[in-house]
Design goal:
single chain, alpha/beta, Rossmann fold, 3-stranded antiparallel β-sheet, 9 strands, about 35% helix, binds adenosine-5-diphosphoribose
């Protein structure tokens, strides 16, 4: 658990809060770090999933396209990889933490217009955020790779996705009832293109942003990591909230060093004070 008496850099929080208050259109780019206090390990760094397993090869998506049935059989076999199963179980029992709720507060206060999250854990929506683009998908959802229609895992039109014991059935592997293309989990795999609609949303939001707060991400995966740089190049303010340095730290206008379950609530409190004084 985090150390509650972490020494926050008050002047950095004040500067970040003032930037949000002054910014007509602020977005956030969020990574796995925000969910650490919800008990979900990150991917890189100490205890990270890829630190333990190594980063997946880029041909997972190709394998799916070649043989959706065997991909689904492995996906449904929880024992296929114990570390991944542990990761899935951590996500299943996770609840939002103070960092997620701070972003809900900023959205309600009109100080955060949109979030682009790389997380698939659904915790932004569980916390109550409304304006969110999940650039790497959402693990509670399914998606057609053809028309990008999405369904909740428990609400697929032809029912629960279970392999038939007598070989391929008309419901397995799942195919899109609208366009007939294969259906997979919504989570974007390594080597899989980001769905067109999702990418368009990210570019639209980035084009409107006058400030971006980059939260709990190693900023190493593209295209997500390009948005903060594009926004700053267009004259926007780049704020980074992370206990550690990242490739963006050197160009960040403001750095909130620390666990985001501490720094983001402090940011909300300071924005509230600025708003009260401006009335
Ligand atoms: N609060 C905020 N940030 C934290 C905390 C914390 N308590 N603890 C760690 N972090 C930071 C780390 O310093 C690191 O910068 O969270 C970041 C986690 O980095 P990654 O594990 O690389 O996660 P992320 O940046 O979200 O990965 C991007 O890579 O594998 C893909 O699809 C996966 O969406 C993921 C993408």
């Amino acid at each position: 658990m985090i150390n509650d008496n972490f020494n926050i850099d008050e002047s950095a929080v004040q500067a970040a809060a003032q930037s949000l208050f002054n910014s007509p259109y602020t977005i956030a780019l969020v990574g796995a770090g925000i969910s650490v206090e919800s008990g979900i390990p990150t991917f890189r760094g100490p205890g990270g999933l890829w630190t333990k397993l190594g980063e997946p090869s880029g041909n997972g998506y190709e394998d799916f396209l070649k043989n959706p049935e065997s991909w689904w059989l492995q996906n449904l076999d929880q024992q296929a990889d114990p570390e991944r199963t542990k990761f899935r179980e951590a996500i299943d029992k996770a609840t939002p933490n103070k960092g997620h709720y701070a972003l809900v507060d900023l959205e309600k206060m009109g100080e955060l217009q949109h979030q682009i999250t790389q997380n698939v854990d659904d915790l932004h929506f569980k916390a109550g955020s409304k304006s969110v683009t999940e650039i790497h998908g959402n693990r509670t959802m399914l998606r057609c790779i053809g028309c990008e229609t999405r369904w909740h895992r428990s609400g697929f039109p032809t029912g629960e996705i279970v392999p038939s014991i007598t070989g391929p059935s008309n419901n397995f592997p799942p195919m899109c009832p609208d366009c007939g293309s294969p259906v997979k989990s919504d989570t974007v795999m390594f080597g899989e293109p980001i769905p067109r609609g999702t990418l368009d949303s990210c570019f639209l939001q980035s084009s409107k942003a006058t400030c971006i707060i980059v939260i709990g991400t190693s900023a190493t995966v593209y295209p997500a990591a390009s948005f903060p740089q594009d926004i700053q190049a267009a004259g926007g303010i780049l704020i980074e909230a992370n206990p550690n340095e990242t490739p963006l730290t050197g160009i960040a206008d403001i750095t909130l060093r620390g666990p985001t379950a501490i720094t983001l609530p402090a940011l909300v409190e300071t924005v509230n004070l600025i708003k009260a004084e401006s009335r």
